Amino acid sequence: MKIHIVKIGGHLINDCKSLHDSLEAFCQLKGYKILIHGGGRKADFLSKKMGIFPKMVQGRRITNKETLDIVVMTYAGIINKNIVARLQSYHCNALGLCGADGNCIKSYLRKMTNIDYGYVGDINVKSINTHLIKFLLKNNIIPVLCSITHNGIGNLLNTNADTIAAYLAMSLSKDKEKDCEVEVELHFCFEKKGVLRDLQDSESYLKKINFHLFQKMKQNHTITNGMIPKLENAFFALKNGVSKVSIGHPNHLNDVNKTMLCL
Amino acid sequence: MKIHIVKIGGHLINDCKSLHDSLEAFCQLKGYKILIHGGGRKADFLSKKMGIFPKMVQGRRITNKETLDIVVMTYAGIINKNIVARLQSYHCNALGLCGADGNCIKSYLRKMTNIDYGYVGDINVKSINTHLIKFLLKNNIIPVLCSITHNGIGNLLNTNADTIAAYLAMSLSKDKEKDCEVEVELHFCFEKKGVLRDLQDSESYLKKINFHLFQKMKQNHTITNGMIPKLENAFFALKNGVSKVSIGHPNHLNDVNKTMLCL
């Protein structure tokens, strides 16, 4: 059983044409597939319109009650349902889910250390209801997951979409299907062609990156900001049983023009 | 096969305690069940906060693009997902859906007559994907439907929740299950005990109402405003194969203290 997991984020979601192109590319993937999305900037836009200003620490949003409501509305509401409606128009039988739906992702409130992240949910391999996900896939339903989870006692929590993608890929990889391995390919898609050797040159993407090179590029500041946790999630997945992990543009989901991760 | 369909609306959704009590009562219903909700006033509140003022004509919202975004965020986002998270905490395996999810309710844009309702979707018996709904029920998943539908060509539309409840009940009633009839009980729940004989006396609910009495009470203005389309939907369902239709408070879902409709 082979499953493609595609995470889309960044500018792809903000721009209508980019989003539709990404969804068309996703539809063209053969076999079982799952889509995961966040939607950060739309939530920022909505917050500002309502006079609430998002607070970020180390690239992560601080989620108070008002902000939680906004991310739920944005991620699970407008973004998720518009993606599903668009995929349906491409005859791709999508079904949108947040982590509470069918108890598909159960998280726990992040423990307070020096920073109080608020209503943020952390997950582990046990968090994912792989039974439900595989049940939907086998019945020709394509799960479209947003980055909202729940804690099982009635609260929704905000969880990083890259982290969900990584844990979902690992959890499905660990499952066995009637003595047959589950092979998972995880694709992190964004507006760039891959991990860039030179940030000023959009064509300078690496064909391959291993963990050692990642560490080196982090030290010399070629890899910075949001790319660091994204690659950390990606390597974590690769080290934990996921068959293939790539980073690149959705236009190249179906070819080799992207950055492949190797150990 | 017996299915309970419960529609909750009105003040039940605005008030947190009423909503939680309604969900507890819903959980106590035995057997197959489906929940449907709207959420009008939350959308109004959010609109105003964003400087957009809702326009109503004959009790129906005029849905321009901005208003559509707000109802999608509110109904499919914050209300639907909070209901699902709460039901999960009661060990009720809920899964939230809008009409685009799994193509479960396909609507068509309301034809413009003297009023342009905007992004409003009308439905008929063929609109409902009963196959998906029954598939979920049989796999111990409880569908929680919000009143957002899609037109199959990528657009979300706003549809009246009472109308969805009525058509869903009729569509499921018309289905046969391996030569066995599907018996549907439809419950319209709101903050009152039923159809009131005297609007000033909350205890004056009718135990029974037939279509003739409804017409009479409409003429003498005992039944007014939003109760008229609600009862029209309810009688329409009863005339089209639904076994039982009731109107009342969710606290009495499991007993006889409500208004039962009869032909």
The quaternary state of the protein chains shown equals: homodimer
Uncertain spans of chain A:
none
Largest sheet report of chain A: 8 strands, mixed
- Backbone CA Rg of chain A: 18 Å
Query: How many strand segments of chain A?
Result: 16
Put simply, the count of helices of chain A is 8
Structural class of chain A: alpha/beta
Identify the overall geometry of chain A.
Answer: globular
> End-to-end distance of chain A, in Å?
23 Å
Please characterize this protein's 3D structure.
Two copies of one chain form a homodimer. The first copy, chain A, has eight helices and 16 strands. The first copy, chain A, is α/β, with parallel strands linked by helices. In chain A, strands 5-8-2-1-13-15-16-14 form an eight-stranded mixed beta sheet, with helices on both faces. A two-stranded antiparallel ribbon of chain A has the order 3-4. In chain A, a hairpin with a 5-residue loop joins β9 and β10. In chain A, α3 packs across α4 (65-89) and α6 (161-174) packs parallel to α8 (227-239). Chain A is globular. Chain A starts with a strand and ends with a strand. The mean pLDDT of chain A is 93.
